[in-house]
Every structure is written in C-alpha cells, then in structure tokens.
Amino acid sequence: MISGSGRTHYTQQLQEVRGEILMMGSMVARSIERSVHALKQRDAEIARSVIDADQAIDKKQYELEERTLTIIATQQPMAGDLRGLAASLFIVGELERMGDYAEGIAKIAVMVSEHPPLKPLIDIPRMADIATDMLHRSLNAYMEQDLGECKAIWHHDDEVDGLYVQVYRELLTYMLQDPGSIERATQYLWAAHNLERIADRVTNICERTAFVITGDPQALPGKIDPD
After folding, report:
1. Higher model confidence: residue 78 or residue 34?
2. What is the pLDDT of residues 20-35, one digit of tens each?
3. Domains of the chain
C-alpha cells in the first residue's frame, strides 16, 4: 500500500503520465488534420511532413509505456489504480495506431497529388473533423473520469459510420461509370476507411475509460474490430 509522501509522489507521477497522454493525443489529432488537409489540397509536401512526424508519435508511445510500467513495478498499485494504469497503456497503443492511420492517409495524399483530382472532397474532411473532435473529447473524458461523456462519444461514432457508407457508395458510382477512375477512387476509399477506423479506436478509449470508472467490462458495448 502506498502512503504518506510516497502517495504524493505517486499521484504526481500519475498526473504526469496523463498529461503526456493528452500531449500524444494532440500530436495524433494534428497528424489526422494535416493528412486530410494534404489529401484535400493535393499537397505532397504537407503529406510528407505528416509521414515524418509519425516517428515522434512512435517515440512518445515507447516513452509512455516505459514510464507506466515503471510506476507499476515500483509502486505496486492496487485495484482501481492498477486498472487506470493498464488503461493508460491501452490508450497509448490506440493513439499510436491512430497515428499510423494518419500516416496512411498522408501516403495516399502523396499518391493522389500526382494525378488530376477525381472530385471535390467534402465528406472525407467531415469524417476527419468528427473523428478528431471525438478524440479530444475522449481524452478529456479519460482525464475527468466522465462516464456520461464516454457514452455520448460512443454513440457519436454512428455519424462517422454513416459518412463512410456515403463515401463508399459515391466512389463506387464513380468506378462503375468510369473504369479509369478506379485507382483514384480506391485510394480515397482507403483514406475514408482509415478515418472510420480512427473513430472506432476512439470508442475503444471510451470503453476502457468506462471500465476504469465502473469496474464493469460491459459498461459500454464493445466495438473493437480485428485490424
């Protein structure tokens, strides 16, 4: 059991880890926003900067994992505290994967920049706006231990899913009407898929936060897909 000055130091360590998770989340959100901006504007230079920035996200993941595991090893937390630290490890992993999705969109942006635009992008940027808003809100809910916000964000994912279906149908129409558009349409479809997966991983963060708060693994229904 942690007590006295040790408890104060332990609490400070937890706050520092949570603050670093927020920082990592901001890094990921920026990568998502910039990758979709590069895709929309067909800007290969911005896209390449997003690709390069993924290394910093990966580095932050390793740093946070090491700090969290050190706390677990040295402080031997119990029950709810241990769940919270396990959640930190889980969230860091989810953020890293979102960064990979943003990097994937940036790579697509580099490819499409070499060809004439297929169509103006409307729904894909909307997906990105919703997904990044969900990400910021989910991390705030994690910080504040806000179960109600977790539930609200979890249901908000349906809007991203609806936009993805809309993008899929529209791009399929382009491919059917003009076989020459298949390659470009497929690239845009992959970008939309990445955004849909980002939103799903945000719901994973909400699910894990809800578990930390309640101790109930079914506090929110699961949406984790193998990927």
Report:
1. 34
2. 999 999 999 999 999 9
3. 4-214 (1.20.58.220)
